[in-house]
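pipeline stage [seq->struct] | target=Glutaredoxin-related protein 5, mitochondrial | organism=Petromyzon marinus | residues=162
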Amino acid sequence: MNAMMLSAARGLLLLRGGGAARASSSLLSSSFSSAGPRALSSAADAGTRDRIAGLLSQDRVVVFMKGVPSQPMCGFSNAVVQILRMHGVEGYTSFNVLDDEGLRQGIKEYTNWPTIPQVFFNGEFVGGCDILLQMHQNGDLVEELKKIGIHSALLDEGEAKK
């Protein structure tokens, strides 16, 4: 999944154009390394890293977001919730980073990804809103959900239309 995510993320960055895409491309390369999450800086200690690793092990789908699924507090978090809802992904674990500044900064350093929300499948960082939206649009999300044992509700809709 990492190579696919890296390719999708680079494509999104290229669409945005300019130096930001080139600068962010190296960020993506390190984010999606097979070695796992990057080490936290001195600002976020080993306790935070261990805490995040523990949070990620709680469920197949984990979302770090602003707000909660029943009441997202930003448009990007809402978009992730809606995409997951469209696919019938229910009962996933979410963490409201607005309630915990240490978690908010720690998750950004853990993934080397600067924005919230952040989505994880089986403890592996998938990406943020843009990546999840692109995966939804091109059909990759259905396949990635299948890999973690989740049947997308969109497959049922497709069968009902036949």
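stage status: PASS
auto-comment: The domain at 42-153 is CATH 3.40.30.10 (Glutaredoxin). The first helix runs from residue 2 to 16.
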